[in-house]
């Protein structure tokens, strides 16, 4: 289905089947079957190495001695296949297995990609670990937890930046492989030596021995209230999900796929969704060493001025920066919009002003709009699960289930939880029977904890929209439920472009409060020097006046205590990954923030905080 006004885009699933179960329970499926898919992801790598050997599989800019990034270094499918086979032989020689997998501590890189592919060929699971666990953390608690959980037989890191973390966490009898540099006091295997292992028939035998139930990788969840859990990702789960994506998003196969992507491979969005998409479709991935932060966004913009993606994925903060830049950057508009067929965001709400700005630049440059798609997924679902059905997407829309995935909608205390069952769902958590057992209901559906509602109750084919996280919702002292997701989205939209995220307060209290994490753009309001402390920026009269206006407008549109922000404060200390307040892709963990900033919450509600904004009417 295509719609005028937008660059043509076909939506693969537009109709669903609904059946009723027990009272308060309904089941929802796509009105088409899941088509056959490969038994193993390595089959797709071998296919493209034979079908398009010289095609660029992946590219990354070469880092110069002074730290700057130069020209692109390309890796062809033939090179990737040959190198992966050598690595696979090295892993086989070392006797690695699911009990002793490969842990990858590093950021996205060509070496990371090759090691992952070698693991897939050998049938040895790999564990991509969040780089901040090594490079940002000071106590290494999460890194230690990851290594204790999976007991790796080999640990890879890109370079000596990881040496301190390795020395503090990796047992002396575990082999360490580095692409560059050393770790003081221990023997290190050069990555080049692992790649140079001569492949033997044992490689083909090992790959043939893998199948749908073979574990491809362990992906760790972000860890909201406990330490992260290792979600098992099998070949079936990954391959089925890629086929599901292909049927829901036919655009992926309509032309040679090109991605420009920064999303971290230790997270399911970057590492399963996008990395897997490239391998599955024989695409080309340009590794973006930028990131939607003030310090690194310039690199993303540089790459998008040079490389034209066919589809483009990012989080809302990234799209916000791109939208702002496209207003004045002619080359960025021309290159980015020249052949992109679809934008896709996930991770948080996309404010309407960002949407409007993107549309304005698109209409100015190409005379039509690019569809901004979205959906719902999670680490345990591969991640792709639900996808929109038309170009007319509004904030909070999710859409309908992908083929082969059955949704179970369960009424729970005034909310409706969505649960998943299908070939793309994890079999459970590694070495964690208790959490695995509690994650599934009596019919084998995975309990997501996500709440949904119909976009239009009179037309189920339009699908579902997000209604918050059930675990995030809370009651006021009056017994009134506060639905966190929708209210949080309203605040972000009303405060755009100056609100990064919001944490709602008021559990068992009389009023709802809001703690706001501002975006860097808030500095423009203050009229202070660029290097002024953020606390001074947030205390400036201009900034306070702006947020007072936002708060007053929100209060005027509220309908009761459950959706009225009665008090608001601005946070100068950003969320930290060490405390689990933020995930790698930038989404806020509400519960962790409330736990670690309990003093601020208390001061906000007992009026002892230095600056509190309250509605004037």
Explain how this protein is built.
With 617 residues, the protein is an alpha/beta fold. It has 3 domains: 1-32 and 239-467, ANL, N-terminal domain (Rossmann fold), CATH 3.40.50; 41-210, ANL, N-terminal domain (Rossmann fold, 3-Layer(aba) Sandwich), CATH 3.40.50; 474-605, GMP Synthetase, Chain A, domain 3 (2-Layer Sandwich). Helices cover 34% and strands 22% of the residues. The chain is built from 21 helices and 28 strands. A 9-stranded antiparallel beta sheet has the order 1-2-20-21-22-23-19-18-17. Helix 1 (41-51) crosses helix 10 (268-281). The longest helix has 17 residues, at 77-93. The model has no long low-confidence stretch (mean pLDDT 93).
Brief digest:
By secondary structure, the chain is α/β, with parallel strands linked by helices.
Q: Quote the distance from N terminus to C terminus.
A: 47 Å
CATH architecture call of the largest domain? 3-Layer(aba) Sandwich
**Structural class estimated from helices and strands:** alpha/beta
Q: Tell me, what is the CATH class of the largest domain?
A: Alpha Beta
Strand order of the largest sheet: 1-2-20-21-22-23-19-18-17
Overall domain count: 3
Averaging pLDDT over every residue, what do you get?
93
Q: What radius of gyration results from the CA coordinates? A: 24 Å
CATH superfamily of the largest domain: ANL, N-terminal domain
CATH topology (level 3) name of the largest domain: Rossmann fold
Residues in helix, %: 25-40%
Number of helices: 21
Strand element count: 28
Question: Shape from CA axes?
Answer: globular
Q: How much strand content do the residues show?
A: 15-25%
Low-confidence stretches: none
Question: How would you sum up the major sheet?
Answer: 9 strands, antiparallel
């Amino acid at each position: 289905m295509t719609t005028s006004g937008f660059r043509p885009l076909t939506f693969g699933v537009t109709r669903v089947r609904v059946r009723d179960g027990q009272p308060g329970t309904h089941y929802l499926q796509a009105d088409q079957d899941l088509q056959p898919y490969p038994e193993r992801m390595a089959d797709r790598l071998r296919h493209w190495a034979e079908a398009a050997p010289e095609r660029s599989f992946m590219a990354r800019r070469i880092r110069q001695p002074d730290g700057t990034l130069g020209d692109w270094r390309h890796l062809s499918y033939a090179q990737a296949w040959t190198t992966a086979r050598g690595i696979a032989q090295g892993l086989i020689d070392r006797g690695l297995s699911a009990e002793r997998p490969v842990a990858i501590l590093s950021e996205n890189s060509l070496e990371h990609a090759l090691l992952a592919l070698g693991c897939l060929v050998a049938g040895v699971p790999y564990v991509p670990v969040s780089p901040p666990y090594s490079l940002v953390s000071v106590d290494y608690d999460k890194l230690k937890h990851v290594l204790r959980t999976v007991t790796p037989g080999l640990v890879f890191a890109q370079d000596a930046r990881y040496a301190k973390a390795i020395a503090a966490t990796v047992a002396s009898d575990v082999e360490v492989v580095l692409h560059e540099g050393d770790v003081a006091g221990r023997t290190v295997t050069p990555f080049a030596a692992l790649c140079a292992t001569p492949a033997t028939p044992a490689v083909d035998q090992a790959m043939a021995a893998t199948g749908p139930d073979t574990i491809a990788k362990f992906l760790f969840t972000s860890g909201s209230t406990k330490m992260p859990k290792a979600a098992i990702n099998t070949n079936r789960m990954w391959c089925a999900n890629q086929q599901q994506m292909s049927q829901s998003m036919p655009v992926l196969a309509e032309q040679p796929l090109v991605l420009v992507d920064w999303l971290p491979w230790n997270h399911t969005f970057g590492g399963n969704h996008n990395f897997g998409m490239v391998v599955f479709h024989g695409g080309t991935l340009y590794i973006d060493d930028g990131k939607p932060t003030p310090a690194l966004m310039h690199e993303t913009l540089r790459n998008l001025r040079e490389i034209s993606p066919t589809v483009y994925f990012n989080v809302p903060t990234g799209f916000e920066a791109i939208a702002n830049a496209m207003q004045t950057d002619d080359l960025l508009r021309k290159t980015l919009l020249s052949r992109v067929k679809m934008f896709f965001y996930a991770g948080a709400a996309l404010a309407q002003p960002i949407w409007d700005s993107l549309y304005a630049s698109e209409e100015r440059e190409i005379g039509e709009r690019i569809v901004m798609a979205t959906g719902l997924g999670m680490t345990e679902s591969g991640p792709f699960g639900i996808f929109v059905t038309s170009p007319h997407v509004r904030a909070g829309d999710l859409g309908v289930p992908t083929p082969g995935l059955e949704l179970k909608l369960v009424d729970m205390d005034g909310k409706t939880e969505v649960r998943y069952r299908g070939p793309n769902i994890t079999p459970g958590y590694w070495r964690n029977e208790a959490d695995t057992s509690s994650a599934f209901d009596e019919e084998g559906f995975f309990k997501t904890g996500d709440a949904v509602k119909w976009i239009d109750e009179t037309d189920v084919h339009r699908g579902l929209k997000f209604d918050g996280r059930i675990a995030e919702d809370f009651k006021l002292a009056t017994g009134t439920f506060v639905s966190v997701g929708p209210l949080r989205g309203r605040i972000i939209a009303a405060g755009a472009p100056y609100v990064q995220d919001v944490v709602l307060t008021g559990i068992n209290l009389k009023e709802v409060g809001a703690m706001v994490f501002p975006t860097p753009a808030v500095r423009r309001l203050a009229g202070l020097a660029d290097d002024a402390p953020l606390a001074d920026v947030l205390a400036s009269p201009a900034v306070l006046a702006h947020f007072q206006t936002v708060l007053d407008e929100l209060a005027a549109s509220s309908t009761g205590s459950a959706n009225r922000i009665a008090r608001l404060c601005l946070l100068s200390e950003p969320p930290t990954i060490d405390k689990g307040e933020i995930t790698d892709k930038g989404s806020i963990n509400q519960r962790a923030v409330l736990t670690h900033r309990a003093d601020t919450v208390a001061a906000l509600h007992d009026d002892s905080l230095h600056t509190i904004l309250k509605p004037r009417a």
